Structure formats: C-alpha cells, structure tokens
Amino acid sequence: MKIIYLILKKATCLSLLKVVGFAFIIIFLQGCLKDDYSKLSVSGWRPDLATALINTQFALKDFLKDDKTGTIQEDPATNFLTIVYHDSPFSYGANDVMKLDSQAASISKGLPSGLPPSGIISSDVVLQDSSNDVTSFSNENNVEVGTIKIKSGNIKIVVVSDFEFSGEITITMPTLLDANNKGTTLKVPFKKAPAINDTSSILQNVSMDMSMGGTTSNTIPLKYKIKANLKAGNQFDTSQKITVKILLTNVVFSYVDGYFGSVPLDINDKLDIKVFNNFLGGGSIYLKDPKVNITLNNSYGIPIEVFFDTLRAMPAAGGTPLDLHGPQINNKITINSPALTEVGQSKQTFIKLDTITTSNPGIREFISCSPNVFKYSAKVKTNPNGKTANKNFIIDSSRVSVDIDVDLPLWGSIKNIAALDTFAFDLGKDMDKLESITFKINTDNGFPLDVKLQLYFVDSTVKPYTRLDSLFANTNTTNLLNSGIVDPISGKVLNSTKTTTSITLEEAKLTNIKSTNKIILKATLNTSGSGAVNPPSVRVASTNYLGIKLGARFKLNGDKLLNKK
C-alpha cells in the first residue's frame, strides 16, 4: 500500500495567519494496491490501520520564509518581534544632475598684425601676434559652473589654416590649472594651406575656475599667440584666416560648484506588504504601534524640497484606498544638505509617521485596512528658493536617496479576520477502497491566537468552482487551535495551550469529494480575549511556537480491496 500525503504548510502563505503563527496540516491516504488479492475468500473483512504521520514544531520564521520582501527584527531584551518592509525607490547620483557634454569652442583669426590687407611677401620674415578671447562652457542641464575639478579627460586642438604660409599657434588656458597651479598651454604647428593640423593632451587631476573671480560662470578665458613664418613670394589678403577648434571630451569630474538650477523631480512607486495578501476583508485589526519611517539621504550641497502628495494604503480585500495624513506629509519638507565645509558628508532627514505624527486617519487606521500595497508619490525640487548667495556643489560620489520602512510590531489584537488559500489536490483512483479515515490532531499552541478552520473540497474543472463538500459541518463555534495563556499586562504568552481534535471522514463524504482537484482553506483568526469590548493587546515573540502531532486511522472496505462487488 502506498501513502501519499499533502501537508498544507503554507497556511495562507503570506497572510497575517503566518505572522501570528498559524499552521495546520492535513494528510490524506491514497491506496495503491500492487498485489492481486482477488483469490482470497475472506468476506466482510474490514482492516483497521493506525499510524503516526506528523510530529513537528513551527516558529514564526517558518511561516514567513516565503516572504522575501519582509524581515523579522527581534528585540533582544524582550524577544518581541517586528516585521519590517523596506524599499529604496529613489536614488539620484551626481551624473543625474551634472552631465558634462563634450565641449567645442571655435574661434577664427585673420592675418597677423603688421601686414597690409593684401600683397606679396618680398623677403622672408617672422611675425608674431597675440590676442585674448573667451569661450563658454555648455552643459545639458544649464548648470552655472563656478569651479570644476576634473579627474580625467581629453583636450584636442585642431587648426585649419587658409594662410599661404606655415607657422605655429600657441593656446593658453590660464584657468585650467594642474596640480602645481600652472595654466595649460598647447602648441600646434600648422602648414601652408590647405592643411589640417592638431594636437591632443590628456587631462588628469586639473581644475578650472569659470567664474572669472566670482563675477560670472561657464566662462573659459583663452590666450592666443600666432607665429607666422612668411617666405618671399607668399601671397596674402583679408580673406585668409586661421580657425582654431578646442575640444574637451570624456570629462569626468570630482567636484563642481556654482548654481545648479531649480529642477523638478517626481517619485511614484509602491511597496508590497505581503503579510496581508490573503485577507478576505471584514473583521478588525488593531496594531498598537505601527510606524512608517522615511529617511532622506543627501550628500548634494544643494537645497532640496520634498512634498509627499500621496501615501496610500490599498486594502488587500479591495475596497476604498486610505490616504495617510499628518503635518510631515501634507507640508513641504526641506531636506538637510551638507555645507561647503562638509563636502563629502551625507545628511539625513527623518520623517517618522506614527501614532503621534499622523491623524484623520492615523497610522493605526492606515494599517487596520490590511493593505497589501503601499503606494506613494512625491514631488522633489532642487533650489526651491532660486539662486542665493550660497554655492551649490556636488562631488562624483554625491547622491540623494529615499529609504522607506514600514514597521509592524506584532503587538495588538485581531477579531474575526478571515483568510483564504487554495491548494492543488488529488485523491487518486483508489479512494473508494476506504470506508473511513479518522484524524487525531494534538496541538500545543504557544501563540496568542485562536483559530477556526474550514476546508472546502472543490472541482475547478467547472467555472465557477463547484463545492463538493467541506471538512467540518460547522466551524463558527469551535476552535481548532486555542490561544496560549496570555499575561494581561504585558500581552506575552506565559504558557502554551494543548488541544486535541478528532475528525472522521465517513464513506459518504469520501464519495462526495472523489472528484476534488483543489482544496480551499479558510481560517478565521482571533487573538486571545478578542471578544471583549476593549480587546487586550497581545505580543508575538521569537519564543512562541506551534507544535503539531497528527495521527490517522484508516478503515478499509475489504470487499472492495479484494475487488469484490
């Protein structure tokens, strides 16, 4: 004989059923007779077999192991537990604010001074000419740059000359300073036209002041020096010129300051609260001290303002969403930011939404609607007051981010909370060999929770599901699990409670459920004392456990077992 069993470990897999420590196991026998007993002549044989099937114990961690989004935190002093759901929905790095495009400046110069508008050179001569100019630094976000420190990059000078003579052009960028505070100078020889000439250099750990002493921004001063090697017979006129292109590419900055503008950003995201996934609605949940903690991390040297316009709970069982209100939600909040003397530091701004800082509805009502999704949206704005005397700054590792934690201390009460879960189920072809099955369940419940249970046997091949039968005739008044003994002051379980339950499935019920291919498990949960007008709050600790011993007694129909009609 082969015994195949089904263990309903999940027990409303990610619901509060798991949180408060509910687990229920049912095992069914499936006969599979390989030997041929048809030659036996025994009539009216009713073999009666008994066996122990399960002897196990569960702690809270066993019921939450499938919930990858939530973590359990334990108070080491009391062993009391809190489920924490965490999300980091928003994070902007330095390159999201400051994107340095490739820079290209182009300046044209005419004939060196000392030459007439046109003519022919009568003898060899060398002429030199100098001039000053400026070019502008452009960027995608229209940032007004004062000072920039460049970790790495490339600079390239391209010279296109129409001159009928050769020479050399020297370009100096006096504010592009190396580690010794020396300006950058590049020399490019050029040939007689037509010719394109260039030179390149690697930039490493250099800095540039684009403010012209604090008077402007995005300005790069340039100095030109042209040396012309004129040969006898060279012709020249005013149409001839030399064009200089300066290219800055692959720029990686380590520090930028200036004014970075007033930039709006939007946050729209959600956090799954899976502990409530299987709730049906109805009943009530009361958590004594739930919290939503929002941490705003900022290492930008930029004033930033945030306004949370939506913090919304979406009930797991459907119904009207509930918005959370409070002064820290419905008002603009200025995020702390480091000062110029604190470059490289990160500042935190903490928003604590608890029973004190929320109202109408408060955090308790927010959680009491059993949300399985927490939606939030916010509007973020840099430099909300516009340009001020204080410089903005960022470094290459600067980042602004948001962390959201929903803390659910397992401290409170629940009343008539129902949860459903569905399992695949196959009775097998030999169930008609059974006359009855009796299960004896011994439970040792160390959780502060009473549990009423019903199992529905259904045929899912017909839509909607066809309910074939149920395990119990009535579960409205009988607990399958009785709560542990709770201290009325601390809410902690002092002693576990032992319960024994016997369940018999007679032949008629076994016949009814023969075509079952799914089982629907419905559990109704109540914390200890939930029937009182003001139910006491109970607490779940890491020391709580649920012990289950399950035995089964199988009565077989000998005539059917021996293939007798």
Tell me about this structure:
The protein has 565 residues and is mainly beta. It folds into three domains: 16-73 and 415-561, no CATH class; 84-93 and 262-390 and 400-409; 99-259, Jelly Rolls, CATH 2.60.120. The chain is 5% helix and 50% strand. It is built from six helices and 35 strands. Strands 4, 7, 9, 11, 14 and 23 form a six-stranded antiparallel β-sheet that branches. A five-stranded antiparallel β-sheet has the order 2-3-24-17-21. Strand 18 (304-315) and strand 19 (322-323) form a beta hairpin. The longest helix has 6 residues, at 363-368. The protein starts with 15 loop residues before the first helix and ends with a helix. Residues 1-42 have low confidence and may be disordered.
Q: Estimate nothing, just give the exact number of structural domains.
A: 3
What integer is the average pLDDT? 80
Shape: elongated
Poorly predicted tracts of residues: 1-42
Which percent band covers the strand fraction? Answer: over 45%
* Beta strand count: 35
Structural class designation:
mainly beta
Helix proportion? under 10%
| Rg (CA only) | 40 Å
Q: Distance N terminus to C terminus?
A: 21 Å
Structural key phrases:
3 domains; 5% helix; 6 helices; mainly beta; five-stranded antiparallel sheet; 565 residues
